[in-house]
Design goal:
globular; 234 residues; 2-enoyl-CoA Hydratase, Chain A, domain 1
Length: 234
């Protein structure tokens, strides 16, 4: 049985590196291929102005922003893939991330795997092209606050203006009409225990919110296509 000779530049990973990789990633080896596509993951709840309990799975927006700046500045990064499985979270933080993603000059593709609920819908449509897995879901519902709410007209006016900002962004960055999006928000006959209208896979594409149903392979292929259109292929 033939074996490949040890190359002089190949070093066996140290034992402590293997143990660290198992703890952090669940595997002793990580593929060494260096891609020119940067992958960002949005999982759990989007944490913004309020620090969530430690048992919550969160994506902190202050960790996300420097990565977006680096994607824009780094000439070695040719595209951005955003993989999402989020229940939503802080509306202003999610909208801020959406605006930053939409302003990038590099090709961007988002894919909803599992769920892209609440403000996650705005993040999903902020990319140049959006995908959703066949079984993934998206919940569209009115803007709500949790915790202490001051019961004065100004509070409701603030919520209404925040909702208008989200609606305007989603409509401008997808193929859904404002009438359809608002109808999904307030379709009381389809509200699932007051959480909103649930769209599954093809439903999100059919109403114009998401561009196509697909997976990672389709997302990578689309980024490469966009890179070619923008003259970023090596």
């Amino acid at each position: 049985m033939l074996t490949e000779p040890n190359l002089p530049n190949q070093e066996e990973p140290k034992q402590e590196d293997k143990i660290s990789a198992i703890k952090e990633l669940g595997t002793p080896e990580v593929p060494g291929f260096k891609s020119d596509i940067h992958c960002l993951t949005i999982s759990g709840q989007i944490e913004g102005h309020m620090v969530l309990p430690p048992q919550n799975k969160t994506t902190k927006y202050e960790h996300f922003i420097p990565q977006l700046v680096a994607v824009e500045e780094n000439p070695n990064i040719k595209g951005l893939l955003i993989v999402m499985n989020t229940v939503g979270g802080d509306v202003e933080a999610g909208l801020a991330l959406s605006e930053m993603i939409a302003s990038l000059s590099k090709p961007t593709v988002s894919i909803v795997m599992g769920g892209g609920h609440s403000i996650g819908a705005a993040i999903a449509v902020s990319s140049d092209y959006s995908l959703i897995a066949p079984t993934a879901t998206m919940t569209i519902h009115p803007i709500r606050l949790t915790g202490l709410v001051i019961g004065v007209p100004q509070t409701y006016e603030y919520l209404d203006k925040m909702q208008d900002r989200v609606v305007r962004f989603v409509v401008e960055h997808s193929h859904i009409s404002e009438e359809t999006f608002r109808e999904l928000m307030f379709r009381t006959g389809s509200l699932a225990r007051d959480i909103g209208t649930v769209l599954v896979g093809e439903d999100a594409v059919r109403c114009g919110l998401i561009d196509a149903v697909g997976g990672i392979r389709d997302a990578i292929a689309k980024i490469n296509q966009l890179k070619e259109q923008k003259g970023l292929l090596q």
